[in-house]
Write a structure and sequence with these properties.
Blueprint (H helix, E strand, L loop, with lengths): L9 H4 L3 H10 L3 H12 L6 E2 L7 E2 L6 E5 L1 H6 L5 H5 L5 E5 L7 E5 L7 E5 L2 E2 L18 E8 L3 H4 L6 E7 L8 E9 L3 E11 L6 E15 L15 E15 L4 E16 L10 E19 L2 E18 L2 E22 L2 E16 L7 E14 L2 E12 L3 E13 L4 E12 L3 H5 L11 E14 L3 E20 L5 E22 L2 E14 L4 E2 L6 E11 L2 E10 L2 E3 L2 E3 L2 E11 L4 E8 L18 E8 L3
Parallel strand pairs: 6-9
Antiparallel strand pairs: 1-2, 3-8, 4-5, 6-7, 8-9, 10-11, 10-34, 11-12, 12-13, 13-14, 14-15, 15-16, 16-17, 17-18, 18-19, 19-20, 20-21, 21-22, 22-23, 23-24, 24-25, 25-26, 26-27, 26-28, 28-29, 29-32, 30-31, 32-33, 33-34
């Protein structure tokens, strides 16, 4: 089989420090429902999330483990793309095949990139070829908030949501006169970034709101692959250029109905190295991620709300070598969703809906028939006395392999005003990607979906002062995993032969200590491939994150600490690492700010994927204008 760093596409297709961190805490249609969540959030100080149930609820009420990154968290982060931000969530590990814009991987509780669903405003943006999304192409300048749900929620969203769901929300328009903003940044590796935006209302009563944000980032980067480990790789630096735009427009017709559009597009050009090429080769990947949707929300009765969405998600990757076009993999997801929420009372909410998905792939490497998926889903969220309940059921009917069912059952008991115990059980699936089914010499049109069953139990403490602390025990068993089996000759063919188990304990905290905002997470897990009794590729058995930020007068100062144990990467072992990032922002006036950040403060040399380099110490300076 090929090495995991054989080509530009492989990064997505491959499948006592932490203990100290653990002690620190102890010392739509999802897209359509964004409107509801935003409105509700403005009326309460309690953080509101929607991804864990497909309906707005306080973060502390969520039975599945849910992390929220709001606008302040995004501003505090040293990351410049969605992948770097999500790396701070508990239970999440990421990989990169080099620097900014490079192929990347996402592991939630040990689940692979293709087993973890990514949505942008409720829209699927994964590659139909690989089954995973390009999070490294989505810049933070376009993002208003991010929710990360850990655990098996395919019963809400269908295929791939085994490990969890990452949902990215673009910036919303607000009911005030239009306000402009911009930022410019300079830093290491000759990095330059500019962003500008405008946000507000088009009318005096605030019925029509809009948001428009554009950004451009360019960096010379560094050599992606260590030439000592891959002599065939070009030792020159691998640069990256990204140009992005995001826009929203919403009109509220009356108290019952509103409608609008949302759009995000990110275009990236990434220079990359080929371990099996020539040292003089110049390789480029031209990538696009797009999410576009039209939505309408309305109340049919006093307690019945309906949501309609028509959406398109795109993932494009076009490869060039030495200025000559070599391959393309252009995926499109067309999505139609109708969701209904019926609120029987403050204590009981039912939801049901229908979803249709068309997936297409345009590639010059192989042809694949279009995929059509018809789905029905239903759910219930409620509470009775000290007990809370969540139940979800979904059926997905695929045109290529048939039907698949998913379900989720969750229960929580409020011990007192602060303590809550919960448990859940879920069954889910991952549909084969087009590569699994049709790729020349390795695809197998007869393979079936991967299956999984998950169970978890959690203890949570929540208060307005300390925030939300949670410890979760989890286990997921995978069967029917798609693996590539040798035919005894030169080829490997996709077969449903794999089995795996991931079990562990996860601790998380998002809250405050005095005036200091703190976010921490630690995971101890045992990710095992049960067919060969080895650790799953690139998953650490223990890893942790800690971030803390504090406002002192005109200053906002903070830092991030990311640590990981060793990981296996095919025939190699990646050493553990610990990375410290620092940032400081100074408010020059009510509108002007200057921010300095240092990434990898101690200049650590570490790997997220075998033979691939990571950035050394970097210093960045940002000037911003954000009138209030």
């Amino acid at each position: 089989m090929q090495s995991p760093w054989a080509s530009v596409r492989d990064g997505l297709s491959s499948r006592g420090l932490a203990a100290a961190t653990f002690l620190l805490p102890l010392a739509g249609v999802a897209q359509a429902a964004t409107t509801t969540a935003t409105d509700d959030a403005s009326q309460t100080l309690a953080p509101v999330v929607i991804t864990a149930t497909r309906a707005a609820q306080p973060l502390a009420d969520s039975i599945p483990q849910t992390s929220l990154f709001d606008a302040q968290d995004i501003a505090d982060s040293n990351a410049d793309d969605a992948l770097g931000l999500i790396a701070l969530a508990p239970g999440v590990q990421v990989t990169r095949n080099g620097g900014p814009g490079a192929n990347s991987g996402l592991f939630i509780r040990g689940a692979s990139s293709s087993q973890s669903l990514v949505l942008i405003d409720g829209v699927r943006v994964e590659s139909a070829s690989l089954g995973a999304a390009q999070l490294s192409q989505v810049m933070l300048d376009q993002i208003g908030r991010v929710e990360v749900v850990n655990g098996n929620v395919s019963a809400l969203y269908g295929s791939s949501a085994i490990g969890g769901v990452v949902q990215i929300f673009t910036k919303e328009g607000e009911p005030h006169p239009p306000r402009f903003s911009f930022e410019t940044e300079l830093g290491s590796y000759h990095t330059q970034r500019q962003s500008a935006g405008v946000n507000g209302a088009l009318d005096q009563d605030g019925r029509t709101t809009f948001s428009l944000n554009v950004s451009r980032e360019k960096t010379d980067g560094f050599s992606s692959i260590d030439p000592n480990l891959a002599p065939g790789a070009n030792p020159n630096a691998n640069g990256y250029l990204n140009e992005s735009v995001a826009a929203t427009l919403r009109h509220r017709f009356n108290e019952q109905w509103d409608a609008g559009v949302r759009f995000l597009q990110s275009n990236g050009i990434n220079s990359f190295d080929d371990a099996y090429g020539q040292p003089t080769d110049l390789n480029e990947s031209h990538n696009r991620v797009r999410s576009a949707s039209v939505f309408a929300n309305g109340k049919l009765t006093g307690n019945w709300t309906t949501h309609f969405t028509i959406a398109q998600g795109q993932d494009r990757a076009n490869i060039e070598q030495n200025g000559v076009y070599t391959s393309r993999f252009n995926s499109e997801n067309r999505q139609y969703t109708w969701q209904n929420d019926i609120r029987i009372s403050d204590a009981h909410t039912f939801l049901f809906g229908y979803e249709h998905l068309d997936q297409t792939l345009d590639s010059d490497q192989f042809s694949a028939p279009d995929r059509h998926v018809n789905s029905v889903f239903a759910g219930y969220v409620g509470h009775l006395g000290a007990s809370e309940f969540q139940a979800n059921l979904r059926h997905d009917q695929y045109s290529d392999f048939g039907g698949a069912n998913s379900y989720y059952l969750g229960y929580a008991y409020n011990i007192d005003a602060h303590w809550k115990a919960s448990a859940s059980y879920a069954a889910s699936f991952r549909a084969p990607s087009f590569d699994d089914l049709y790729y020349p010499f390795s695809g197998n049109p007869s393979i079936q979906p991967e299956r999984s069953h998950s169970v978890e139990a959690a203890l949570q403490y929540a208060s307005s002062g300390l925030g939300v602390l949670r410890v979760t025990l989890f286990q997921t068993r995978y069967s029917n995993l798609i693996d590539y089996v040798s035919d005894g000759g030169f080829y490997y063919t996709a077969q449903n032969v794999g089995r795996a188990k991931v079990q562990g304990i996860e601790g998380s905290w998002a809250g405050h200590v005095g005036r200091t905002d703190v976010r921490a997470g630690v995971t101890f897990q045992n990710p095992v491939d049960e067919t060969n009794h080895q650790d799953l590729t690139r998953r650490a058995r223990h890893f942790a994150t800690l971030s803390a930020h504090r406002t002192i007068g005109r200053w906002r100062v903070g830092g991030e600490w990311l640590v990981s144990g060793q990981r296996s990467d095919y025939d190699s072992t990646l050493a553990g690492y610990g990375i410290v990032n620092l940032s400081a922002r100074y408010d020059i006036s009510k509108s002007w700010t200057v921010t300095a950040r240092v990434d990898n403060l101690f200049d650590k040399d570490y790997e997220l994927a075998y033979a691939y380099n990571t950035p050394r110490r970097g210093v960045y300076l940002t000037l911003g204008w954000h009138p209030s």
